[in-house]
Design goal:
The protein is α/β, with parallel strands linked by helices. It has 7 helices and 5 strands.
Length: 170
């Protein structure tokens, strides 16, 4: 099972079972530690982002291997699943983007505005573990920004690799 799917399921279970915040954080930390060696890309969105804007973000996120993160359910679980399915179908057919409902990532990376893009190269929220850019742009433009402007060499390298792999032929 893909890491993002496991994390999405863990967050859903934690939400459904009303696990205490400390216990949910422990669960998140154990899953995150397993993936600390690989850079991770995230697109943070909310229910206020229109489907018209989400469809190209989902297409780009899928191409770049980013995960789309929402802070909470859009209405309820069924409504969230329906909207995600509709967006994925519109952007990518049967191979849609990966999604997470994960308020802990919003806290970890101090996301207060959407869309925000995070490229994490370490396991935590230390200044050397990630870079973030916020604003209405494509994932490709966020990767260009990271590759050209980040003060962190691992972020610059990871962004350049992800951009080349996903967008260099377009």
């Amino acid at each position: 099972m893909a890491l993002s799917t496991r994390l999405f399921n863990a967050v859903l279970v934690a939400s459904a079972c009303a696990i205490t915040p400390a216990r949910a954080q422990d669960l998140f930390d154990s899953i995150r530690a397993a993936a600390a060696e690989q850079p991770a890309g995230y697109v943070f969105v909310s229910d206020r982002v229109t489907d018209t804007a989400l469809i190209p973000l989902a297409r780009d996120a899928r191409a770049a291997g980013f995960t789309i993160v929402v802070n909470g359910f859009w209405g309820d679980l069924a409504a969230t699943r329906q909207r995600v399915a509709r967006i994925n179908e519109a952007c990518c057919g049967k191979n849609g983007a990966h999604w997470q409902v994960n308020p802990l990532l919003f806290q970890r990376y101090q996301v207060t505005a959407v869309p925000s893009f995070v490229l994490a190269v370490g396991p935590g929220n230390a200044p050397t573990d990630f870079a973030k850019v916020t604003g209405e742009m494509s994932v490709a433009n966020a990767l260009k920004t990271f590759a050209q402007q980040s003060r962190l060499p691992p972020v610059r390298r990871a962004a350049a690799v992800a951009y080349k792999r996903a967008f260099a032929t377009q």
